[in-house]
Amino acid sequence: MYRGLTEAILRGETDATTTGKRIVLPANFVGGARYMIHNYQDAVATGKTYIWRALSAALRSTCDIVLAVASSGIASLLIPGGRTAHSRFANRTFG
User: Fold this and answer.
1) Using the 8-state DSSP alphabet, how is residue 49 labeled?
2) Is 64 inside any structural domain?
3) Nearest one of 50, 55, 59 to 78, comparing CA atoms
4) Domains identified in the chain, total number
């Protein structure tokens, strides 16, 4: 805190109404950490989908059996022949 205050004074910002005020950026702001994290997560998700598709295609090309399951419906749509684990193995929850 003191370092930020000292830097503001050295820059000549003596108006206390704007010093230390929080700025809320919109979700589509492309210069911040949130944007970089979102891009990283997109790249990781794309890479995982590519690996699953390539691995299942390679195994199926050698006549091996591949049961592609996922924990959510959205994830199962990304995998060729994929289904959710509870629909593939007929797991039922009783409660």
Assistant:
1) H
2) yes
3) 50
4) 1
